[in-house]
């Protein structure tokens, strides 16, 4: 009976050793914080980012991971609230996570960025477009895989001036970092191009009645409206403008390009103009990646899926090149050029892309979008 007992003891020992080894392997996973709005009115944007991150992790891990280590996503909720940005950042730092995809919204990103940078956490946001995130900050570890508002805003304004050719324009915004920033860029470019901007005004995000500002639009006699902000307010503006007989086209940035806007605006959403990242899903070079998204019932053509996929990919490629050292990864991102689903990407000293492709789309009441030509 002693021999079986010894065998059982060895079996237990080997079992413990195996468990410890497995635990050690698990502990060596490279964690990537996914800082998104998991709660609040903008959760759809978090879902978009998560779809891109999940697809990237699945592909990278299936191919053996990065230098033998698997990547692991850790979701951290900041609700897209500026006051929650630092809270989320401290959670990331305390969890000893050295890489982040996000934050999603500019206000939260701006509030959190100094913490990430001071702690040496590499941040790649696929969606925060405010120039204030990087301009004049001398950050070394904050990057984005999307263009800035001062790229997107002038692009939208040029389309308005050259293609729409309105006589009198109103520019509205939600008084927040992202919305007001891009609206200001649109206004300034329109004025420089000789377009009459009759009204520049903020509305309160979260309100349910915008009849007062719609009355102002009617009184001003505008024939085109640009709105800087997110889809909940844009949806209400569209619906209430239609209800009050204001027959003008309204345009917004990528923050309004959310399928949820159809439920808010109803038929009034038809013909809304929106600037979005180029439709990278239509590029034949991305066919296999598009299939990988669709196989998991994910949308490869949303505003932020390809950008968040790319954020994970450039982090992983940098770790593969220089090792799992956040400081070295940040330096590599500043100096290398990456082949990605968004094209060949390179960053300047501020962490902004040297070039980025926006397009204008017509949004339709069935939730689809088509390139806008007029």
Automatic annotation (TrEMBL):
**Gene3D superfamilies, A to Z:** 3.40.50.2300
User: Which keywords does the record carry?
Assistant: Amino-acid transport, Signal, Transport
**Matching CDD domains, A to Z?**
PBP1_ABC_LIVBP-like
**Signal peptide position in this chain?**
1-24
Coiled coil stretches, renumbered = none
Where on the tree of life does the source sit, at the highest rank?
A: Bacteria
Name all Leucine-binding protein domain ranges: 30-367
Report the Pfam families cross-referenced here: Peripla_BP_6 (PF13458)
Family, as annotated: Belongs to the leucine-binding protein family.
The name under which this protein is listed is: Branched-chain amino acid transport system substrate-binding protein
Q: Which organism is it from?
A: Comamonas odontotermitis
Q: What is the lineage of its organism?
A: Bacteria, Pseudomonadati, Pseudomonadota, Betaproteobacteria, Burkholderiales
């Amino acid at each position: 009976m002693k021999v079986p007992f010894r065998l059982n003891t060895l079996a237990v020992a080997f079992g413990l050793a195996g468990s410890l080894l497995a635990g050690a392997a698990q502990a060596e996973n490279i964690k990537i914080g996914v800082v998104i709005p998991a709660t609040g009115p903008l959760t759809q944007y978090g879902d978009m980012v998560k779809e891109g991150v999940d697809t990237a992790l699945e592909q990278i891990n299936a191919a053996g991971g990065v230098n033998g280590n698997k990547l692991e996503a850790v979701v951290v909720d900041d609700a897209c609230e500026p006051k929650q940005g630092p809270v989320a950042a401290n959670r990331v730092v305390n969890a000893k996570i050295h890489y982040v995809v996000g934050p999603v919204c500019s206000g939260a990103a701006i509030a959190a960025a100094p913490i990430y940078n001071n702690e040496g956490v590499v941040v790649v946001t696929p969606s925060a477009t405010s120039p204030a995130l990087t301009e004049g900050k001398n950050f070394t570890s904050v990057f984005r895989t999307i263009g800035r508002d001062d790229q997107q805003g002038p692009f939208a304004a040029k389309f308005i001036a050259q293609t729409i050719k309105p006589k009198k324009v109103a520019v509205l915004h939600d008084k927040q970092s992202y919305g007001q920033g891009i609206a200001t860029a649109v206004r300034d470019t329109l004025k420089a191009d000789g377009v009459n901007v009759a009204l520049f005004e903020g509305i309160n995000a979260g309100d349910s009645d915008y009849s007062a500002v719609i009355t102002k639009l009617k009184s001003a006699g505008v024939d085109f409206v640009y709105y800087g902000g997110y889809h909940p307010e844009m949806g209400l503006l569209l619906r209430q403008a239609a209800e009050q007989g204001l027959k003008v086209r309204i345009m917004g940035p990528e923050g309004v390009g959310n399928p949820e806007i159809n439920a808010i605006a109803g038929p009034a959403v038809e013909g809304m103009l929106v600037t979005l990242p180029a439709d990278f899903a239509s590029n034949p070079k991305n066919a296999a990646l598009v299939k990988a998204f669709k196989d998991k019932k994910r949308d490869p053509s949303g505003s932020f899926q390809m950008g968040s996929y790319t954020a994970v990919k450039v982090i992983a490629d940098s770790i593969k090149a220089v090792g799992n050292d956040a400081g070295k990864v940040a330096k590599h991102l500043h100096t290398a050029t990456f082949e990605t689903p968004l094209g060949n990407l390179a960053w300047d000293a501020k962490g902004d892309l040297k070039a980025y492709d926006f397009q204008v789309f017509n949004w339709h009441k069935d939730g689809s979008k088509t390139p806008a030509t007029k």
